[in-house]
Structure formats: C-alpha cells, structure tokens
Amino acid sequence: MKATKFLGFIALVLISGSIYSQSNQSSMTNTAIVRKFLDGFNHPEKIQTSLALLADDYHFKNPLVELKSKAEFIVLAQGISQVLTGVEILHTAENGEWVAVNYVFKSSLPGLERNIATEWFRLEGGIIRESHLIYDASEWRKVYAAMEK
C-alpha cells in the first residue's frame, strides 16, 4: 500500500512538472519569444528552435531582400550564417503584437564586424509572422551579390 501511494505521489509530481513546463512556455511574452529566436544566431545548435518560432508564411524584409516564406528565409539564413558571428541585443520594446529590437549583429567580414540594426517583429499566438530589419546596407550589397552567384 505504501509503495502504491509513493508511486502515485511520484506520478503526480512528474505530471505537475510537465504541466507547469508547458504552461510556462505558452505564457512567454512576445519579447521573450523574439529573444529566443535571436539567440539561435548566437548558438548554432539552437537555430532549429529559432526557426520553429517562425510561421510558414513568415514575411521578412531588409534593405536588400523581401521574402514571403519561412523556407525562403531559411535559404537566406544558411548563406548569412557563413559570415554571421552573433547578435548582441541592446534594447527591446513591446507593444501588443509588435516587438522592436535594437541590436548589433556581428560578422567575420572585414569592415562589417559590427552592424547596428533595428528589427520590428509582429507575432500572433506565440509565432513570429513577420519582421522588418533596418540597417545600413551600403557594404552588405556586395555580400548579397556574391551570395547570388
């Protein structure tokens, strides 16, 4: 009888922990979701977790490209990952479904080691639907041109 009660108690603890974990993730703020997304660019082993936060019809725009799907973004991210060395978040601001992030994205390219950017993210139901990245792309135009070859 004591063994049955003990096993029941252990099962209750495990189930409670699982429920807490699931509810804790679904209660993440939009800012926390965006931070988790950007963290994947600092840790390549986490990039799949980052990409899972994007809607299939994710709309991405920066000064050089406009993409209409998660699949298109993945292709771009694979190319950029060859030179991107990290993202340093400076400031965030959240207003409803929008999150603005001011950050430095770092690269291994001479002259483009530190790039100040602002990105605006729109989320729905814990998923990133779109983002608009703003940065000085003057020198990056050459990088994108080389990627297209």
Short structural description:
With 149 residues, the chain is of the alpha+beta class. The protein is built from five helices and six strands, in the order αααββαββββα.
Provide structural commentary.
Mean pLDDT is about 85; it is low at about 5-25. The chain has helices spanning about 1-25, 30-40, 45-50, 70-80, 140-149, and strands spanning about 55-60, 65, 85-95, 100-105, 115-125, 125-135. With about 150 residues, it is an alpha+beta fold. A 6-stranded mixed β-sheet has the order 2-1-6-5-4-3, covered by helices on one side. It has 5 helices and 6 strands; from the N terminus they run H-H-H-E-E-H-E-E-E-E-H. A hairpin with a 6-residue loop joins strand 4 and strand 5 (about 115-125). It is globular.
Q: Mind describing the biggest β-sheet?
A: 6 strands, mixed
Return the string of H and E elements. HHHEEHEEEEH
**Spatial arrangement of strands, main beta sheet:** 2-1-6-5-4-3
Strand percentage: 25-35%
Count the DSSP helices.
5
Q: Which oligomeric form is depicted?
A: single chain
Computed over alpha carbons, the radius of gyration is: 20 Å
Given as residue ranges, the uncertain stretches (5+ residues, pLDDT < 50) are: 3-25
Going by helix content, strand content and strand pairing, the class is alpha+beta
Distance between the termini: 72 Å
Helix content: 40-55%
Number of strands: 6
Average pLDDT value?
85
Shape estimate: globular
Which key phrases capture this entry?
single chain, 149 residues, alpha+beta, 6-stranded mixed β-sheet, 5 helices, 40% helix, globular, disordered N terminus
